[in-house]
Amino acid sequence: MTDEKALRLYVNRWGDTSDPAPGRPGSYREICSCFDQSKPHPRARVGFHTERQNTSAPGWQHLLELVDEAATDGREEFRPLIELSPEERRQVITLPPSIARLTAVKHLVLYGSNLVRIPPEVGAMTSLEEFTPTPPTGCTGSPTRSPDAGS
What we know:
The protein is mainly α. Helix content is 19%, strand content 5%. The chain contains four helices and three strands. A three-stranded parallel β-sheet has the order 1-2-3, with no helix packed on it. Helix 4 (86-90) links the parallel strand 1 and strand 2 (107-109). The protein is globular.
């Protein structure tokens, strides 16, 4: 007994940003080792990313629009990355201060981003109960080696 409707597959257009499933085919993420402490000694010293957000980038501008839209409609879940193209997602390395306006958001999903910092304004999201950030491999820099670490 085969039901053709039950066998139909649907494409997840945002599979790389919708959940933390590792190894998802077609997902694209830049890999960073700035916090890679899994290798044996000598360990790399953890360095902070110093890149500045390009606030004129199309991805940043689109994110600002999405924050405004979410603040206006009072949604409880905010998944901005599914609305950004892969290129736009790569242009966003922090969240805008206007994220503080999302006081109704209970779940903030940023999985699959290239964020290297989370601004303190996230603390103003008074309804926030669940935060799904990107794993440490989402950042794009390289570690700063300790001077006594050798090569």
